[in-house]
Amino acid sequence: MSEIPRFPLYDLHSHTRASDGLLTPSELVQRAVTHRVGVLAITDHDSVDGIAEAQQTVIDQQLPLKVVPGVEISTLWENHEIHIVGLQIDPQHPALQRLLAAQREFRQQRAERIAERLEKARIPDALAGARRLAGEGVITRGHFARYLIELGKADTMVQVFKQYLARGKTGYVPPLWCTIEEAVTAIHEAGGCAVLAHPGRYGLSTKWLKRLIAWFKAAGGDAMEVAQCQQAPHERTQHSLWAQEHDLAGSQGSDFHQPCPWIELGRKLWLPGGVQPVWERFPALAPR
Ligand code: AMP
Ligand code: MN
Ligand code: MN
Ligand code: MN
């Protein structure tokens, strides 16, 4: 499998401080340009609040970058938390706004319950700690993870999730997210295209993963992420084949949250031949 360079470089999955990213929208777009990204989708968890600042920075600084307004919606499917990315959405659309408001309301309630559970495990003030780290942004388990690291309870994000926040652990609260169909419908109503995010990261067996892809397609899904920067060998080829089998377009994204040695905006993002790039199926994604 050889790299086929395509220009411009698309990175269709990234986070800002509007959710659990560490950079401001303005810092994120500047970093994207440094890494030669030409089209960047901002896809915060259940929030569209980072998009306007990113777009304004591109205009003010005349950056050679197109910002795609996006979102990453948490859903529940067969007791698994599945993430659906919406690309080229109208951030102000009422149907989308309604769904995101409900998701954030649930996030707040879940955060309170996570903190209660941690309190019982003699970890104090977790709600205030996570809220402080989230700032004005949407509260996520990522903020609880950073707070626990601050307290010295673990050294890395992976470790802290494994010990405290993953399913079945002290700080885990079963989620009440919307369904895949509800997320896809809201994204479509807001004029966007719906993308199944990082299919390789749900810990599903091949049988269940194929079931998920078929379900997503039946729910009206448009594309799936085929390429990410950190990926097991052959996963990209496999995902490309499944996308083609289900007539889904292929997307690619770093899922960048913060500067770190392994994940970078635009890094190793290319699609195998055969799968239709999502920006060809949805020309609105292409640069002006
Ligand atoms: P939430 O949407 O509030 O459940 O938070 C999920 C977020 O936590 C994900 O988007 C990741 O950024 C982060 N996350 C989840 N699992 C892990 C993990 N094992 N290691 C590091 N970060 C994780
Ligand atoms: Mn995240
Ligand atoms: Mn995700
Ligand atoms: Mn993400």
UniProtKB/TrEMBL annotation:
A Pfam entry, by short name: PHP
CDD domains listed in its UniProt record: PHP_HisPPase_AMP
InterPro entries: PHP_dom, PHP_domain, Pol/His_phosphatase_N, Pol/histidinol_Pase-like
UniProt domain Polymerase/histidinol phosphatase N-terminal: residue ranges: 10-77
PANTHER family: EXONUCLEASE, POLYMERASE_HISTIDINOL PHOSPHATASE N-TERMINAL DOMAIN-CONTAINING PROTEIN
Name of the featured protein: PHP domain-containing protein
Organism of origin: Candidatus Pantoea multigeneris
Source taxonomy: Bacteria, Pseudomonadati, Pseudomonadota, Gammaproteobacteria, Enterobacterales
